[in-house]
User: Fold these one by one.
Assistant:
Number 1:
Amino acid sequence: MENALSPSPAGEIAGRVASLYVYPIKSCRGISLSQASLTPTGFRWDRNWLIVNSKGRGLTQRVEPKLSLIDVEMPEHAFAEGWEPDKSSNMVVRAPGMDVLKVSLAKPEKIADGVSVWEWFGSALDEGEEASNWFTTFVGKPCRLVRFDSASETRPVDPNYAPGHFAMFSDMYPFLLISQGSLDVLNELLKEPVPINRFRPNILVDGCEPFAEDLWTEILIDNFTFHGVKLCSRCKVPTINQDTGIGGEEPIETLRSFRSDKVLQPQKKPQGKIYFGQNMVWKDGLGDGITKTIEIGDSVLVLGKLSSPTEAAT
């Protein structure tokens, strides 16, 4: 991994990777990593699982904020390059007042049809009755835990922004990048600062100007090229305290004052959207035989950027 922030004729060094996160079960707590393995659909293990209701519709914190209290643990070596699970490998799930749930990483045999998340509809792998009972008890309504079936299903992202790219159960795109500078500016305006987990990024970058990520159309992290495809429009989830599951009005109300489409793109008809973070896709790494991981401390090189947020895709 490259560790020196040295000038490059190919682009501008913007900062470093400060933190990396995956969220194995969509809308549950994330896991902070020192390194993360890349796949075309996101970091390995990110949003591989989804909690669905009795109609097969995916549940998120927007409707069930208590999902923020569910803690997920993966095997110690699950994030190492080339690691594969065996029959004894489990994902461990915990929540207040609940017994520990162990979900085997072996591929389930049962198929759940009629699974949907946002615009996508298809089948998924059903993790069985024990997991179903656990989530049903905790959430308080009939639930099942399903796993994305990458052997038989694909979920294309919006082709208007990133044709040919795919995601698993993330909201829209495989990667979300936010800078520490952007969070710092927001927190200076808030009476009670919020941690980065309110925004659930995959990549946190430090060392760049606040909201510099708005302008990035192409960056290089270690040997891997990422394209910035669309600013991230925020929902109510950032208003939910991830430690308590209790919602409020901030930081969305403060963000509305300086990060709304009306402010950032006054030339367009406002739609009431609020932006924080850059959605990204990964292009193939440069060269052959290189390890497909990025890690904390990797430099971020900007290869292409816009001149103004008014040009950013939304």
Number 2:
Amino acid sequence: MLSSSKVLFGHNLHHRAKSFIPPRLIHRRFLHLAPPFLLDDYIPRYQLLSATEASKKRSAAYAHLRHCNLCPRLCGVNRYETTGMCLIGDNVKVNVIAPHFGEEPCIQGHNGSGSVFFSGCNLRCTFCQNHDIAHQRNGFDLTPEELAQWYLKLQDVGHVHNINLVTPEHVVPQVALSILHARDLGLKLPIVYNTSAFDSLASLDLMNGLVDIYLPDFKVWNKATSQRLLKADDYASTAAESIKAMHEQVGDLCFTGDGIAKKGVLVRHLVMPGKEAEGEQIMKFLAENISRDIFVNIMEQYRPAAHVGKPKRRTKKEVSEQEDREEVRYADINRPVSKDEISVVRKAAEAVGLWRFCDPPRHDGFAI
């Protein structure tokens, strides 16, 4: 009896003992809230750091601000004096701080995720779904200490389930300092690192021990797509390396009994028009190089945004010659994604052995 219970809960054990399972149970869906993905309780990783380890991280963060080489852009600027690609100096610029109910159910829960939307970004995605935040320097400036105080407000007043740092890749030193300061002020919530995955191993090393849940995107696979749509030559290789490092730190996504995620990696892939073959490659990489138990959200809410669908700039001669035809930028992705394209990526994920998906509930209750 004990053996068959383990078979139902563990993916590897399932294959090892498949012959012992009655035929009617072989295709039964596995449970997310089951060992080894079920936690009795959880203490955030930053609570377990020693005073010496915390001091070393503070020193490293200040050093990186003086010579910023944390993200793959490697600008090398002194952020106390000037800015690099991200246009952000030694303080962070924040657009919104509030309980957020637009995340995965296991992240937002009933009370919301305590989201901090940072302005600026180290990518230049032509289709950015948060263009007004990521590509424009809108918001208010905060020191790491002031940011830490906001974490406490989200915890004590908002009663959120976690602190969700949205697009933090370009402000990693400030974020590290803010978490350490918030720990001293009494923060008890898990930290979610909500990233494009255009991170360096150095930045992830600084965040190691501070982050509980990594929430990376894996946007595109082909280099040509990355160059054209993200304005980055090496996105896929960087994202692959980063997600592997994230998984080595915190493992597969784990929950407490209330259905709220506490630690691990949840990978998002936004399906884009005509790019489903790249989605297939991403799913294959995740299964073969990270874990078949990795939690994946195959997202279907792509919409033309930012520069997509805007009129192309034309000379006066071109305007006079093409009066009846208005060309738009990035016309190939200037449409919603189709159900067939989403289905292709989902089937590819299942075919390579992935099984933990962020699916809507098959009932009228809450999606946990």
Number 3:
Amino acid sequence: MDFQVTGRGLDKRWPDGSQHFLDQEEAEEAEDRQLLEPQAWSTYMERRAALREFLTSELSPQLLRHHHAHVELLQRCSFHIQMLPEHLALGDQKPPLLPHTIFQLVDPCKFQRMKKVGAAQARIQLLLLGDLLEQLDHGRAALDTLLESPDPQPFLAGWALVEQRLAGLSAVMDNFLAMMVPGRLHMKHRLVSDVDATKLPHIQLLLSTKMPVMFDRKESVAHQDWATLRWFVTIQPAAPEQFELRFKLLDPRTQQECLQRGIVPVATCTFEIHHLLPDRVYKFTIKRVKSYTLVYEPWQDSLTLHTKPRPPEGPAPSLLGKPGHP
């Protein structure tokens, strides 16, 4: 019987004389198995499978892409203060105060200070979300490299460090998910002045978000001297909203053309702007009208449209009129 193994086990001859070549991964696995004791090999394979399962279920590329998209959406949202009563005073049988009623009792100066606190908290939240997501990306890349490495030592003698890394990434993910939802604002002083505290429920301040206002780029069209603009909000609000539409001519050539700009308050999600110049480029922006509860608005959508040129003029009519028949 002719049976021969040469080199790294890649050249094997069987009785029929044919040669079978293993692919690189199988060859490396076969060699590693020869170098390890059976118990060590079993432990090595179990831990590789556990790491692969973690990457598939807890830190998959699809999940990270989903989180990236969510953070990008949150970076386009506007942040608002939501004010609600925590509970009624003991023995008070009156119904809870409505939020708009509470605003009438709040000290305006103290509320403005709380809006600055809310804006700072929103900025910090967005920065931390970006930092945590970057840690998850780098952690996923490092674990991918470890899984592709032929070295079995990290899965044996160095497995405790790998477990620490997995636990650390799980904690980062937990913090990331907890921070995705805007939280409560902490007050150092009472916001209400000159009101009997026994009849007023405690007030809690929350940061809430509103979905961004975005142009409908398919339905927004520029014509020769006018433009039709449409926009939408991903989640329709419960109450009608007011919007602020801005437009301006880019690269004006004269002082008169510098006046080709304006701000238009709009109560619907569509508007037509007339008296534009033909064959010119205009920039349009859309956002909500600034409200009393707005604390932070890092982004607003913009759209650039090019108006159509005037149609070419026909040839000048002949002074002699139409040619006659011969």
Number 4:
Amino acid sequence: MSLLEQLPQAIFNVIALDLEAEDLATLMLTSHRLNRLASCDELWIEKISADFGDREHIIDVLADAGVDIAELVYQSTDLVPWRRQQLDIETDTDDDDCNDDSSDCSSAIPTTSHRYSFTGVGMRCYRDRFIRVFPRSGDDTVNNIKRSEETLEAVKHMLRDGPRASSDVFAEAAYRLVFVQEYYPNSAECYYLWALICFMLNAFKPSLSFLNIGQSINDDHAPLKELAKEVQSIVAGAYGTGNQVPLLDGAGSGPSVHLAKALAIIFQRLDSDRDGVLNAAELSHMVRQTNGQAPPPAVIAQIIGSFGGQLQSKSGRMVQGWNLASLTEFYIAQTLDDPSETRKDLAKFGFDPATLKQA
């Protein structure tokens, strides 16, 4: 018995993932033991992700950005089953190979790590995905191209409102891209649009994850390059480089602990009457301190309207102005636009722009 034949299933699966499907199929013909090892359903389901894109990773990165498409994907009957798909078959763990061609890819692969199934379902799922990526007829290829192009255009149309789009729109757009990736796993355009969705949601780290994959597929894709440059600039400023502490939290939607602490101190300094609201005069003082000159009343009114409004003070009196949440929201918005401006402002309030500690 060869060393390869003596390997446990888990180790064999790791090695086999690096083999071409054709070579793996040939290996199955060399001995009963290798046929058994290479027939593992879990191996072929995992190989779908290895060869045609890791859909689980796509779903997880989108979830990190606040876009949940897991249920949509799991419930779809139009996608070839893949790793983490909820499947329904009876586990076969004995020594008899299952060669029943009547089972199809709606059957399930058990998810327990210490048990493996050998039903032939995994290979059929791989075959079905392979045929989608490499259709047997020219007509199928033409139809797939047309359908994918139409889907990409539809997604771009859905994203025309930018960050103002609803969460349902972002989820539907991201979900539709999965269907393009089903047939074209190396579509850099898909990864660009997923990155763009994350960018619109201020989820910069997830956006970078998609951009890195997209650029590994096609480093000459101009939209990927442009978006990557913008996101990298924001991430470098917002999360800091060298000895700089981050301005934003991990999700990119709130202040870091350092920024939150600094803003609380700044708010207390600006709130000269200690009523818990920065009124027009106090906001004018803030703008004068950061910009060097007092703004006209119309500008202050616009600032109040954008991030604050009619707020109740500690005494119960209603005041037009900002509370601490308003100040925080303003600096998050400014950081997302230009992190360097936030660090400059903090320096003018007496904080080290890198460490955000009081100088």
